[in-house]
């Protein structure tokens, strides 16, 4: 089975491109972020015509996450238990997480809050969001509250640059978000919860970016960031035979500013 994650940066603008990519790559399950549409506006028919079922949550022209699958899509869950809301005075549970069981794997499409600036309330929200997700993800593997053998994939746009080598120039982010010690600690805490970030395992090289800004010729100059990742549970990690970052998908007219990260899942765990 092939599972991928992709910040599509507006699914209505790129639905046909996404389906063409799915068919070209033989991907079975695709987690999408930044769909940027309400549920009623999602282009379901484009994916359904290609044989994919869709689960989506979107509240406005911002955020939005989806899972599309041709191997089943069951037990859809909007938001993870304990997911914090944001806003004052009326906090909103933003459309940033959706889970579904697809081909025996519990897939979560995640769009982690940006943070905006270290002194912005959105930054504290980001850290709380990651902390709550980690706590919940740990409970899914706990023998008392979950299943240590569960097949779980936490994939998406994490909006964290874990290592200095995951950005073209770390000094460009000095004083900003994505590289602060607290964000990095929150990201790596998922390993303590029992998960493995498999894209790093299979694609360890420096400069393996997943995002390039549209401005200032960032892509031709390879001024990128690595911020799209896949944390998998122990049982699923043993089945991951390879990971690909599809840099080619950033090329051409109408590309998203992110590219797909693709996991190849074997039927049986490796040795």
Task: Give a description of the structure.
The chain is an alpha+beta fold and 271 residues long. It has a single domain, classed as 4-Layer Sandwich (Deoxyribonuclease I, Chain A). 23% of the residues lie in helices and 25% in strands. The protein contains six helices and 14 strands. The chain has helices at 11-25, 44-48, 121-141, 181-192, 198-202, 234-237, and strands at 2-7, 29-33, 53-57, 65-69, 74-78, 97-102, 105-111, 152-157, 196-197, 211-212, 224-225, 228-232, 240-245, 261-265. The strands form three sheets. It has a six-stranded mixed sheet. A six-stranded mixed sheet has the order 5-6-7-8-12-9. β6 and β7 (105-111) form a beta hairpin. α3 (121-141) packs parallel to α4. The longest helix has 21 residues, at 121-141. The mean pLDDT is 97.
